[in-house]
UniProtKB/TrEMBL annotation:
Residues 30-49 bind DNA. This is TetR/AcrR family transcriptional regulator. GO terms for molecular function: DNA binding. InterPro entries: DNA-bd_HTH_TetR-type_CS, Homeodomain-like_sf, HTH-type_Tx_Regulator, HTH_TetR. Keywords: DNA-binding, Repressor. Residues 7-67 form the HTH tetR-type domain. It comes from the Bacteria. Signal peptide: none annotated. Pfam families: TetR_N.
Length: 192
């Protein structure tokens, strides 16, 4: 169990890492940079993280923890147009609220450091399961007009990710809100 000071140190290390990741590529950030920014000894860093890679994974886990909990709760959502639009609204709000962090995480060098396949295995696949369960319940109830809930969950998660990825990295001439509005129309057509 961490003490209050231990929690503070842990948080300070993650904050310093976040600042440095925003300033330069994750592969160029060193443990020396992090401990200098944090004002701790190198040995103290290793009390919390066994390596820079472990720190980066913890950083991603911490930043996505709220989204992970929300995705698990999606199975309780209903299927009215308003409820489906609420799901898209939540995603839009999440992207807007965490835009700076998402820009760091969607940088190709960040993906390269952790490995795209490892990131997909850890996050994308984890989010597909609750989404698939939600879709399957709607399919079985006859509320959703889909044939394969697993396929549709994969399709929707990948589509949402790719679209917002383009907006986050400024590769799309549309705002986050515009993408969200168009997604509502698309998702409702796909599911109903």
């Amino acid at each position: 169990m961490k003490t209050k000071k231990g929690e503070e140190t842990y948080s300070n290390i993650l904050q310093a890492a976040e600042q440095l990741f925003a300033e330069k590529s994750v592969s160029k950030v060193t443990i020396k940079d992090i401990v200098q920014r944090t004002g701790i000894a190198k040995g103290t860093f290793y009390l919390y993280f066994e390596s820079k890679e472990a720190l980066v994974w913890e950083f991603v886990d911490e930043k996505f923890a709220y989204a992970d909990r929300w995705m698990k709760e999606i199975v309780r959502k209903g299927y009215s147009d308003d409820e489906i639009c609420e799901i898209i609204d939540y995603i839009v709000l999440f992207v807007k609220k965490h835009l700076a962090i998402l820009k760091i995480m969607h940088n190709v060098k960040f993906h390269g450091f952790l490995g795209m396949k490892r990131l997909e295995d850890k996050y994308m696949k984890k989010w597909i399961t609750p989404f698939s369960l939600w879709l399957e319940r709607g399919r079985l109830e006859g509320t959703l007009s889909i044939h394969d809930s697993q396929f549709m969950a994969n399709y929707l998660i990948v589509t949402l990710h790719e679209l917002f990825d383009r907006v986050i990295m400024d590769q799309f001439p549309f705002s986050i809100e515009e993408v969200g509005d168009e997604l509502k129309v698309l998702v409702l057509k796909l599911l109903k």
